[in-house]
């Protein structure tokens, strides 16, 4: 049985941190800054331990672009601040090669999640408030980010 490499360990730690943030988002609609910082904090270990060279400068640029695009959505009230920070942290891990499939998965799973929450808020246990309540119900988008992150982790573990 092959031993786990340092790179594999770091990648799994990255995913567990994102999953922890998603669970916190589901429970309290909050993504703690410490989990975002931990997600970013594992990245240098990933760069150093990766069996292939990582273009960390391009990854930083992707993360910055993702953050500014997310900030624009946050300013318009479409997404929460914690979601923006977590998206940018995961975008750092994606770099230019994995960002497009990651964002597509986040968008698709976020749409499904939004539909589930909309139906639950509209027809759930307490249908008080009707459609207005359903449309203003917050969505824990950290779950969608974690689903997209699972794809990234799978791809990163394949290079090991």
What are the SSEs and their pairings?
Layout: H1 6-28, H2 33-41, H3 43-49, H4 56-75, H5 81-123, H6 130-136, H7 142-158
Helix pairs in contact: 1-2, 1-3, 1-7, 2-5, 4-5, 5-6, 5-7
Plain-language structure description:
The protein is an all-alpha fold. It contains seven helices and no strands. Helix 1 (6-28) runs antiparallel to helix 2 (33-41). The radius of gyration is 17 Å and the shape is globular. The relative contact order is 0.17.
Short structural description:
The protein is an all-alpha fold and 160 residues long. Helix content is 79%, strand content 0%.
SS summary, helix count: 7
Output the structural class. mainly alpha
Q: How many strand segments?
A: 0
| Low-pLDDT windows of residues | none
Shape: globular
Q: Over the alpha carbons, how many angstroms does the gyration radius reach?
A: 17 Å
Q: Main sheet?
A: none
Q: How would you spell out the order of helices and strands?
A: HHHHHHH
Q: What distinguishing features does this structure have?
A:
160 residues, mainly alpha, 7 helices, 79% helix, 0% strand
């Amino acid at each position: 049985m092959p031993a786990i490499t340092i790179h594999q360990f770091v990648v799994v730690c990255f995913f567990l941190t994102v999953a922890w943030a998603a669970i916190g988002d589901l429970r309290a609609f909050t993504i703690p800054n410490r989990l975002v910082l931990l997600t970013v904090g594992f990245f240098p270990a990933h760069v150093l331990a990766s069996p292939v060279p990582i273009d960390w400068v391009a990854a930083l640029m992707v993360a910055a672009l993702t953050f500014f695009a997310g900030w624009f959505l946050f300013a318009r009230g479409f997404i929460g601040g914690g979601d923006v920070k977590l998206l940018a942290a995961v975008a750092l891990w994606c770099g230019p090669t994995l960002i497009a499939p990651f964002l597509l998965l986040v968008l698709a799973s976020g749409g499904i999640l939004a539909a589930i929450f909309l139906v639950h808020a509209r027809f759930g246990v307490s249908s008080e408030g009707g459609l207005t309540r359903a449309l203003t119900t917050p969505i824990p988008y950290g779950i969608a980010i974690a689903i997209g992150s699972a794809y990234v982790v799978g791809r990163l573990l394949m290079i090991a």
